[in-house]
Each structure stands twice: as C-alpha cells, then as structure tokens.
C-alpha cells in the first residue's frame, strides 16, 4: 500500500471503509461501499455496480497546469459495450477523465482532457491500453512539465505534449466511478492523486515492502509494550491501535525506526489491539499479525520489616518493588550485610535497610 507523503493530495486504501488518508471527504452515492470479494491490497476494495454507485468529493484545483499523477488499481467486471469511467475531475462537465471504454476504439481504456470546458480539445480517446476484465490492472496518468504520460501496468502506452491548463469547474465535483450517465462496474483499490509526476518512464507498480511478523504485546501499568521482527529494507514502521478486535485501526505512531514501541497513558482494564506496518519510500506494507494486551495497575502491598531492635518499618510499595526486596533478601540471606534501598510509594522517600539489622519481614497484600 502507498502511504501519505508531502505530494499526496488524495489516498484511499478502501481497507478501512471509504476514508481518505489525507483527510479529504468522499461521499458514497447509491450505496457504494467497500467489499472483501476482490482486493489488490489490504483485503478489501471499493465496489461499484455500474448503475447508480459512485463517490464524489468537493471540487478542488488539484490539476490546472501543474504536475500531477493519478493512479489506481481496478478490476473491471463490465462488458466492452459499457462506457465506464474510473475518475473524473468534474462529474458532469469537461475537464479530466480517465478509464473510459468505447467499442469504437476497439475496447481501449482511454483518457480525455479539456482546457475550454466545452470540448475535449487537449486529448480525446487517447489510449491507456487494451481493456482488461476480471483481473487487477494498474493505471496511471501523469503530467510532467507540460508532457502527459499514460501507463498500464507500469508500461508507457501514450504521451502527449500540451501546455494548456485543464479546465476547472467550481460548480461540479470530482468523482470516482461516474461521468454523466457513464459509470464504472467493478472494483477499485489504492486510488491516489499526487501533485507531482511520480513516473515518466516504465516502472513496476507492484513494488512493495514486506509485512512485519511476530508482533507481540506485553501489558504494563497504563501501558503496552510492543515488539516485532525487523523487516529488511524498511526505513520505518507505523503502529496502529484499536479497542475492537479486528479493527478499525488508527495510526498512533509513525516513523518508528526501531522494532519496539511503548504505548503509554492507557486505561487499565481495557483491552487494546495492535498491528504494525513497514514503510519504504512511499510504500506501506500490509498489516502485521494482530496482538492484544490489557494494561493492569501494579498491585500495592504493605512491606512490614522487623528490625533487630524489635522496631518495625512499614512501606506501601508496588508489587515490582516488593519483588525486588524479596529477591535481594533471599539472595543475601546468609552471605551479605549490604543495604537495600526502599523507594516509598506514598511520599517518594528512600530508605536504606541493612541486611544484618533485619530479623524478619512480612508482605501484606492489597493495601488501599
């Protein structure tokens, strides 16, 4: 999966609903939703029925005359007689459109561009490759310094020189899956818009980074410690959390460079669920195995120590401090006269007990 970088304008994985990772809001029309029937990455994709399902988002000036890249994976299920649109910058007016299929062009996926808003004066029925159905295919339309490039599965299929600016319409919205009455039938995954030219020559669209494994979660007091196996070639990791088994997961830490992370300020008694992804360049791996843990408060106890002069010392301590004292005492019971530092839980004071001055001690659990 791709990750958001400084050039990402829009990014939808469709593995956590219809959610744009850049914060852009997309509206589902006609009951459009994600499906687990087909997916390229992440386990689910956007399904559109070719009749009345599509997405829209508020209009923006993402294209104009600057560099850009639109790329996506699609799994078409419609026939070659359908005029299907994968994306348009204007749902009802001339601007930018990619993904048409016209029988008049021999079953080609095509791209269309307009500068005047009334005709396809820049590009009309330009090819992005033969129409391919019932398998995943990657498409990309790129502009770099006035040159347009069209790719299918990373192979350059067409290019065009034009300095004209793409028409912008303030009264109509961009859409995934519809232009006028022409609608997409099938699945779309990993849809992205960027304000840079990501490719100008052949590339490998399935470049990926391996998925982290062996994620483990260890509970502490108001915290969970995570660890996982290093991924070769990964530059960093993203840590994601949910309070529901199976997600949806929210990223709580990014750019983690090690293979461990401590999630703090948690609520004791609540179970937290985690996954981790690996990052390399602008790519993000699939989610790791899931791990969960339930933070618990350290149990308080009273340590009562009887000294050689029959006096008693009492300390309210957390269980880890009690354990430390017992381990020290048992280890030195017959050989050592060194002292042990007690860190008082209540007033934060510190007292040192000399081993040779102790007669006995008693631990009284669950002291409030």
CATH class of the largest domain: Mainly Beta
Give the uncertain stretches in residue-range form: none
Please state the average pLDDT score: 87
By CATH, the architecture of the largest domain is named Sandwich
Q: Determine the structural class based on helices, strands and strand pairing.
A: mainly beta
How far from one another are the termini? 50 Å
Q: How big a fraction of the residues is strand?
A: 35-45%
Query: How many helix segments?
Result: 1
- Provide the CATH topology of the largest domain: Jelly Rolls
Helix percent band: under 10%
Number of spatially distinct domains = 3
Care to count the β-strands?
30
Radius of gyration in whole Å, from Cα?
Answer: 30 Å
The coarse overall form would be elongated
Largest sheet: 8 strands, antiparallel
For this entry, give a set of tags:
single chain; 368 residues; mainly beta; Jelly Rolls; Immunoglobulin-like; 3 domains; 7-stranded antiparallel β-sheet; 1 helix; 44% strand; elongated
Description:
With 368 residues, the protein is mostly beta strands. It folds into 3 domains: 8-194, Jelly Rolls, CATH 2.60.120.200; 216-293, Sandwich (Immunoglobulin-like), CATH 2.60.40.10; 300-365, no CATH class. The chain has one helix spanning 319-331, and strands at residues 8-12, 27-29, 33-35, 45-49, 54-56, 68-76, 87-88, 96-102, 108-113, 123-130, 137-144, 147-152, 155-161, 175-176, 178-179, 182-183, 185-194, 216-219, 224-227, 236-242, 250-256, 260-263, 272-280, 283-284, 291-293, 300-307, 312-318, 339-343, 350-354, 358-365.
